């Protein structure tokens, strides 16, 4: 509860700062909060993982630019890309980026465009647990994989106890929760397990949970609610969902370079080190889940905005798309992410993102 | 039905032999409760059944056996049936009241003036505040359009089935109306989405949502109107036709007005049925955080999609808003019901 | 309700027969209009079927497994592998549980309102029941998940403990939540208003003559219900049950919230798991690729066909019953 209030306070303060800088701002470099306002309205749809982050951006942007209306519908990446390709929306949000056949279709939708993936919102996938007496639970990818594969079923299993000397682990069955719906969160989580513990995690990585055991819950909102309401439980959600929970804590992951807390900063380190696999301004990323860098939280996800570099018809308001994404990539936009539990894009990657956004045509 | 009660008591008084005394039911209930209490206190269980269940079984068996011994088989059966019917009432009402009270308690916590007069524009998912005005107006428009389309179409189709229909066409329409009542709501949404939206005929809009709701509403309107038109006495039709009144006038001036009360109730039931539908709206509308009164263009939120959106955001404030919206939706349907009752009472011909 | 009324209505409906002249223009227009409305229903149904088939075909061609018997659901994989076995099983089990509970209780509560409760109380009760039809299913789902399920988990445990020798109640996972049983129970509550509201309407229409005659002959109240009410209202009761079944088969969001979707046919109905046609569409649609969406539409088509079949069977039963019932 207290955390919520602090967050509300900081968001409000942030909004005030934004408004002030909008009033007094003169220069409009791409990194300034004072995005050149565009007017009109656009629709965008896609990833629900970035839903709350986009809503915060929209609120901040619309406060600055009252003549603009942006609607984002968090219906899932696949459906978001489909609607973008069907010319229903001006841009799409996706957890996995568009590639191959989808990219071809997106290019076609942008009349040759090309369509580009712009990584805009990062997320840490927190391993959340509900153990009243245990703070700072430490896990490694092997132990994590065994818990979620149901080969470790008790909290006081020697493998867990070995990592957590001095903590009073209960002699209780682990209630494991995973996503029952298809999601980018599951996709990244299982990719992490596959990359780091291939001998333990033998299930196919993907958007759908394929391991036996545990209980499925629909959406991160229900996973966190289930974990928060079930003692001795464990689950995985985006860090932003942890806000306001009573009984749930996030585990530290030992990536081989020491235990790392799941925070915006530690996840940002991992995302900043991702390699770009797209060409030109298409910034499709490949995250190194096996990172052993100290202070790099390894279980992360990157969500992209898919936009037309050229070829978006005027009635779908390319100027507003560019103006909004420019704001999102600005320092103000990216720092907003940290306050709401998301992960900002940093370093040279951020510079590339800004270049990509500035390459968007406005007509 | 208290008339039936009195009649029955009278009849039984005359015709039957020995009966259980009036105090037998409370006495048996008391005994059963005592047994339940003993089970509760001693912790002694019969195949793990809860004390309340044990008490209920004891009551049912005790009543059946005493009644069988004193009153005979027929009355014993009647008593078992009566007890079971009362039991279904209690069993059914418990969860139903439970859910209504849950919605009431959770919903009232966010009810204030701003909740009804503001929108979600520029309200953070984490903040309390914001409101449902945009969603309420959206629901009003979407359900309103759906009603404006469904009621005339449904009524006309019902008139066809009752007053004109013959042979094979009547059979097939009647059959497919039944099938249509069973069309899962998500399939209705999928249909509008794939047939009209992805093909570019329509945008995702309030109107597209209304069309999806029509698929769910029309068969309900047809079925209920059909039943209501059927119970209009044929004497009325024949008398009017005999006077040389054209058939269409007979229907519009005599048959429909006679049945109007039932027709309105039926239509309102159909409204209630679709007002809470979420699944078809998720595919056919686009979520907005602000008021959009144009049902044909742009995003438009409705109460069900508002609830869906706020729940999935997963913060304490947003989940509270969702429960508030759920309560508002139930109240909305309640008001429609009340309005329907008043309208029905006003339009019903007095001579009936 | 009765065939005889129907037939008289039809003969009265013959305009030519009554007026003895050519059909008047007004009548012709009105007939055209109302027939058009009826035909519209047929057209919409045909369009729904056509679009579902059209959109389902690409995935059915891509499917490398047997669509009817395959248990996994990985349509966007290469090669595409998916089938409806789990969905059909889960839909069937939850619907059966819901019907087993909701139909007797729904009839019971309708009988209570119509013949046992005081009229004013009965009306108020009927109103509350009607109101529940308007509660959005997501609210039923959340209530079911966080209020109802914890309360009835002990019942599921009891089933396993004392009836565990019946294979379907066995529980190897020692978890009694998020199961087909739970989904079935919540569905039962959700369809209860439908079943009871419609059967109530039917019971109220039983001619008072029949009721009073049977009571006058010395019948007990139950005998009156059995001999005067049930035969008269049987077709209506069957359609009430069928409407309820329709809702149970197609319920989407509540089931999606409650079930712990697993793509494996598990006959232990108290264990977490299971899935249904409608819930699966809600769970998978957002992230599905092109083949995936088509596969979901194919599963929607199957659901549609099941609805069609169920209604055909209901029609057939009602038609048969009508011949035998002495009431009409």
From TrEMBL, chain A:
Protein name per the record: Unannotated protein
SUPFAM superfamilies named among the record's database cross-references: Periplasmic binding protein-like II (SSF53850)
Example GO biological process: phosphate ion transmembrane transport
Keywords attached to this entry: Phosphate transport, Transport
A cellular component annotation (GO) from this entry: ATP-binding cassette (ABC) transporter complex
Any Pfam family hit: PBP_like_2
Sequence similarity: Belongs to the PstS family.
Entry-linked InterPro entries: ABC_phos-bd_PstS (IPR005673), PBP_domain (IPR024370), Phosphate-bind_PstS (IPR050962)
GO molecular function: phosphate ion binding
Residue span, PBP domain: 32-331
Organism the protein comes from: freshwater metagenome
Automatic annotation (TrEMBL), chain B:
Membrane topology listed for this record: Multi-pass membrane protein
InterPro entries assigned to the protein according to its UniProt record, in alphabetical order: MetI-like, MetI-like_sf, Phosphate_PstA, Phosphate_transprt_permease
Subcellular location: Cell membrane
PROSITE patterns, per the entry: ABC_TM1
Keywords of this entry: Cell membrane, Membrane, Phosphate transport, Transmembrane, Transmembrane helix, Transport
Protein family membership: Belongs to the binding-protein-dependent transport system permease family. CysTW subfamily.
Protein name, as recorded: Unannotated protein
Naturally occurring in which organism (per UniProt): freshwater metagenome
Lineage: unclassified sequences, metagenomes, ecological metagenomes
TrEMBL record, chain C:
Domain ABC transmembrane type-1: 88-314
SUPFAM superfamilies referenced in this protein's UniProt entry, alphabetically: MetI-like
Name by which UniProt lists this protein: Unannotated protein
GO molecular function: phosphate transmembrane transporter activity
Gene3D superfamilies: MetI-like
Organism annotation: freshwater metagenome
Listed GO biological process terms: phosphate ion transport
Matches recorded under InterPro entries: MetI-like, MetI-like_sf, Phosphate_PstC, Phosphate_Transport_Permease
Assigned GO CC terms: plasma membrane
């Amino acid at each position: 509860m207290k955390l919520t209030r602090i967050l509300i306070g900081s968001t409000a303060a942030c909004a005030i700062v934004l408004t002030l800088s909008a009033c007094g701002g003169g220069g409009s470099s791409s990194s300034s909060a004072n995005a050149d306002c565009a007017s009109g309205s656009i629709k965008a749809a896609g990833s629900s993982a970035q839903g709350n982050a986009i809503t915060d951006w929209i609120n901040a942007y619309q406060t600055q630019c009252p003549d603009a209306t942006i609607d984002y519908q968090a219906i899932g990446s696949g459906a978001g890309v489909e609607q973008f390709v069907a010319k229903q929306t001006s841009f799409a949000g996706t957890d996995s980026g568009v590639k191959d056949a989808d990219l071809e279709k997106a290019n076609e939708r942008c009349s040759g465009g090309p369509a580009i993936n712009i990584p805009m919102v990062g997320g840490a996938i927190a391993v959340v647990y509900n153990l009243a007496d245990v703070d700072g639970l430490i896990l490694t990818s092997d132990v994590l994989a065994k818990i979620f594969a149901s080969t470790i079923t008790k909290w006081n299993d020697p493998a867990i106890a070995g990592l957590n000397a001095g903590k009073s682990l209960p002699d209780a069955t682990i209630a494991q929760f995973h996503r029952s719906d298809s999601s980018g969160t599951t996709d990244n989580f299982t990719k992490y397990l596959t990359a780091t513990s291939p001998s333990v995690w033998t299930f196919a990585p993907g958007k759908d949970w394929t391991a036996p055991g545990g209980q499925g819950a629909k959406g991160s909102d229900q996973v966190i609610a289930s974990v928060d309401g079930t003692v001795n439980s464990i689950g995985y959600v985006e860090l932003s969902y942890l806000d306001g929970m009573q009984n749930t804590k996030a585990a530290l992951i030992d990536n081989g370079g020491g235990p790392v807390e799941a925070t915006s900063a530690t996840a940002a380190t991992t995302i900043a080190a991702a390699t770009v696999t797209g060409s030109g301004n298409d910034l499709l990323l490949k995250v190194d889940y096996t990172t052993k860098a100290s202070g790099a939280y390894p279980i992360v996800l990157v969500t992209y905005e898919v936009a037309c570099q050229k070829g978006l018809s005027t009635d779908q308001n390319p100027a507003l798309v560019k103006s909004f994404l420019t704001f999102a990539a600005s320092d103000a936009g990216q720092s907003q992410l940290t306050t709401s539990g998301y992960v900002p894009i940093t370093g040279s990657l951020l510079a590339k993102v800004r270049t990509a956004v500035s390459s968007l045509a406005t007509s | 039905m208290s008339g039936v009660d009195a009649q029955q008591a009278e009849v039984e008084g005359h015709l039957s032999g020995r009966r259980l005394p009036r105090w037998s039911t409370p006495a048996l209930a008391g005994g059963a409760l005592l047994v339940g209490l003993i089970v509760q206190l001693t912790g002694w269980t019969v195949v793990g059944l809860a004390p309340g269940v044990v008490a209920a079984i004891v009551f049912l068996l005790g009543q059946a056996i005493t009644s069988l011994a004193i009153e005979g088989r027929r009355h014993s059966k009647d008593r078992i049936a009566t007890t079971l019917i009362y039991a279904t009432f209690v069993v059914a009402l418990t969860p139903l009241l439970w859910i209504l009270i849950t919605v009431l308690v959770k919903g009232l916590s966010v009810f204030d003036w701003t909740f009804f007069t503001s929108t979600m524009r520029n309200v953070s998912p984490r903040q309390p505040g914001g409101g449902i005005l945009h969603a309420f107006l959206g629901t009003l428009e979407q359900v309103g359009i759906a009603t404006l389309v469904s009621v005339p179409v449904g009524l006309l189709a019902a008139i066809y089935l009752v007053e004109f229909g013959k042979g094979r066409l009547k059979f097939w329409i009647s059959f497919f109306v039944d099938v249509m009542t069973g069309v899962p709501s998500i399939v209705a949404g999928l249909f509008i989405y794939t047939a009209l939206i992805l093909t570019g005929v329509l945008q995702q809009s309030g109107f597209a949502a209304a069309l999806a709701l029509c698929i769910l509403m029309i068969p309900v309107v047809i079925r209920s109107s059909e039943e209501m038109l059927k119970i209009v006495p044929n004497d009325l039709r024949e008398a009017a036709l005999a006077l040389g009144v054209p058939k269409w006038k007979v229907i519009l001036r005599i048959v429909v007005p006679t049945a109007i009360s039932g027709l309105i109730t039926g239509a309102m039931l159909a409204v209630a049925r679709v007002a809470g539908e979420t699944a078809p709206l998720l595919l056919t509308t686009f979520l907005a955080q602000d008021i959009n009164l144009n049902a044909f263009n742009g995003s438009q939120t409705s109460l069900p999609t508002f609830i869906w959106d706020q729940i999935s955001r997963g913060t304490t404030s947003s989940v509270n808003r969702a429960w508030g919206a759920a309560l508002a939706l139930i109240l909305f349907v309640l008001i429609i019901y009340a309005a329907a009752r008043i309208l029905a009472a006003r339009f019903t011909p007095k001579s009936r | 309700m009765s065939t005889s009324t129907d037939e008289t209505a039809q003969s009265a409906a013959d305009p030519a027969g009554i007026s003895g002249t050519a059909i008047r223009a007004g009548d012709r227009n009105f007939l055209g209009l109302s027939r058009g409305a009826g035909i519209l229903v047929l057209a919409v149904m045909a369009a729904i079927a056509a679009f579902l088939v059209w959109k389902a075909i690409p995935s059915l061609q891509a499917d490398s497994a047997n669509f009817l018997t395959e248990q996994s659901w990985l349509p966007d994989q290469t090669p595409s592998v998916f089938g409806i076995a789990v969905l059909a099983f889960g839909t069937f089990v939850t619907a059966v549980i819901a019907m087993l509970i909701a139909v007797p209780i729904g009839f019971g509560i309708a009988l209570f309102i119509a013949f046992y409760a005081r009229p004013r109380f009965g009306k108020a009760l009927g109103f509350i029941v009607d109101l529940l039809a308007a509660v959005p299913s997501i609210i039923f789902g959340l209530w079911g998940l966080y209020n109802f399920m914890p309360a009835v988990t002990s019942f599921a445990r009891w089933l396993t403990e004392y009836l565990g020798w019946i294979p379907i109640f066995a529980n190897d996972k020692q978890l009694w939540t998020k199961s087909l049983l739970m989904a079935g129970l919540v569905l039962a509550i959700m369809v209860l208003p439908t079943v009871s509201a419609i059967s109530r309407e039917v019971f109220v229409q039983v001619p008072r003559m029949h009721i009073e005659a049977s009571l006058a002959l010395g019948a007990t109240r139950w005998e009156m219900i059995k001999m005067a009410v049930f035969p008269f209202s049987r077709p209506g009761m069957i359609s009430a049950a069928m409407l309820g079944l329709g809702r149970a088969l197609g319920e989407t969001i509540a089931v999606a919230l409650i079930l712990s979707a697993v793509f494996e046919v598990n006959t232990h109905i108290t264990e977490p798991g299971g899935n249904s046609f409608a819930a699966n569409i809600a769970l998978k649609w957002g992230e599905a690729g092109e083949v995936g969406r088509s596969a979901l539409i194919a599963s929607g088509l199957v659901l549609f066909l099941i609805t069609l079949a169920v209604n055909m069977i209901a029609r057939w039963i009602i038609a048969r019953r009508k011949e035998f019932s002495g009431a009409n």
